[in-house]
């Protein structure tokens, strides 16, 4: 009986271990790498291409957001906020923002970023797993986070984000094609001892179906490809709002 229980809980345990591994990575060597990519300093050509791709992805997301009208007291969630680039962009647009990240160092950097931008008071920072977030938000953004999760982790996180979203969900995932470039990209992110080539690409249909089970429909999507950066950015809306 004990054995059966252990078998039943193993997938959950593996997901939790995977999250802890990511937390350690993004709170250590991964923080140094990503903070540099999201910063302004000199970079190698590979990382520069990731910075350029990420910058253009964020610009596209901001452009989509700017096409819409939100109430004056609109709330936004930046899930897996990293160093807070998009949290700050949301706060500058007047949203009351909640920014959550599993890695404490990332949250510290995001706080510093918001102070520099003069929008600290508009952002509630939380250190933790995005799946612990409750409440509902007009806009939910989750960029370059779900790429680190296999289908079994991706689906519940994606549904959690959708459940938190009243109106507009913006997220990125790793598209299924361009396999080689993606493997290089992912491989390059991790030190040899921590490389996780099982980090997943998702098919468009899997993502759309997962969102549909949470009542959201994909309205538009675009591939953003630059050097070693390859993601699909999508915007989904609540079915009843369409
Ligand atoms: C590649 S960075 C992207 C940062 C930010 N979204 C951006 O695009 O600028 C991925 C971030 O996701 C965070 N993360 C990974 N899994 C998470 C989880 N389960 N809950 C919250 N944050 C998570 C990491 O700590 C890291 O800061």
Q: What features would you describe in this structure?
A:
This protein has 242 residues and is an alpha/beta fold. The protein has one domain: Rossmann fold, CATH 3.40.50.150. The chain contains 8 helices and 7 strands, in the order H-H-H-E-H-E-H-E-E-H-E-H-H-E-E. It has a 7-stranded mixed sheet, sandwiched between helices. Strand 6 (216-226) and strand 7 (229-238) form a beta hairpin. Helix 1 (2-27) packs across helix 2 (29-37) and helix 4 (85-92) runs parallel beside helix 5. The model is unreliable at 193-198 (pLDDT under 50). Bound molecules: S-adenosylmethionine (SAM).
Question: Topology, please?
Answer:
Blueprint: H1 2-27, H2 29-37, H3 45-66, E1 75-79, H4 85-92, E2 96-101, H5 104-117, E3 123-127, E4 137-142, H6 151-163, E5 165-173, H7 179-189, H8 204-212, E6 216-226, E7 229-238
Parallel strand pairs: 1-2, 1-4, 2-3, 4-5
Antiparallel strand pairs: 5-7, 6-7
S-adenosylmethionine (SAM) binds at residues 19, 22, 26, 34, 38, 80-82, 85-86, 100-103, 106, 129-130, 143-145, 148.
Query: What's the helix-strand series?
Result: HHHEHEHEEHEHHEE
Low-confidence blocks of residues = 193-198
The strand order across the widest sheet is 3-2-1-4-5-7-6
> What is the number of domains?
1
The share of residues in extended strands comes to: 15-25%
| Mean of pLDDT | 90
Largest sheet: 7 strands, mixed
What would the CATH topology be?
Answer: Rossmann fold
Helix content: 40-55%
Bound molecules: S-adenosylmethionine
Instruction: Assign the structural class, choosing from mainly alpha, mainly beta, alpha/beta, alpha+beta, or little secondary structure.
Output: alpha/beta
- What is the straight-line distance between the termini? 49 Å
Under CATH at level 1, the class stands as: Alpha Beta
Provide the gyration radius in Å.
17 Å
- General form: globular
Q: What's the number of extended β-strand segments?
A: 7
Helix run count: 8
CATH homologous superfamily grouping: Vaccinia Virus protein VP39
CATH architecture: 3-Layer(aba) Sandwich
